[in-house]
Amino acid sequence: MSSDPFASLVPEARAFLTKLESNNSRDWFQDNKAQYDTLLKNPALALLDVISADLGRMTAQPVTTKLFRPHRDVRFSKDKTPYHTHLHMLWTTPAGASGQGWYFGISPSYISIGAGVMGFDKTALLNWRAAVDQDATFATLVSDLTHKGARLSEPELKRVPAPYAKDHPRGDLLRHKGLSVWFDKSPQDIKKGGLTETIMTAFSDLLPVQSALRPLL
Predict the structure, then answer these.
(1) Low-confidence ranges of the chain (pLDDT < 50)
(2) How would you class 41 by CB atoms within 10 Å of its CB: exposed for 0-12, middle for 13-18, buried for 19 or more?
(3) A Pfam family name for this chain (predicted)?
(4) Which of these, 15, 66, 166, 173, has the minimum number of CB atoms within 10 Å of its CB?
């Protein structure tokens, strides 16, 4: 028997979500809602609580948790399929107006663990640009993480914003209006390390970026 109480969450979630991709209708979901609750929702809520306690100890901050609903908001979308085909979890630690996010997501095509701020508010954006302009702290942190296999979120801007030079040495970071960094994992990674430990190891690696971001928010 596995010592990981969440050993079945990733494979069972991916299997369910794969079926949902092919049967994305309210009737199918309602017929299978008990399975969703048993295999995905309830274990995810338990995982949120376990990671919340560990993350609180690591950051010495209060942690708020969120399990994203499976229902899609289709009001302004051409895609009217009613359900997301992923399972996303969020832990938030307080900083600024929006807080800092710690993320875990499962889908048929990815397993991702990340952290950061999805979108800076106006003040944080100005602080971010000033910090990136002044020194290479964030460039070094991001470089260290990418050498560990992480990937950076895509920049929101196509060009370096004024008043910074187009050839600014850290122009790629200046094009960001938020910053999140991600580790993509395979099912074998999760099975080998255990889900809780795999998430917390990634969060520990991501902590220096979060610590550097916090004063800007």
Answers:
(1) 1-2
(2) middle
(3) DUF2461
(4) 166
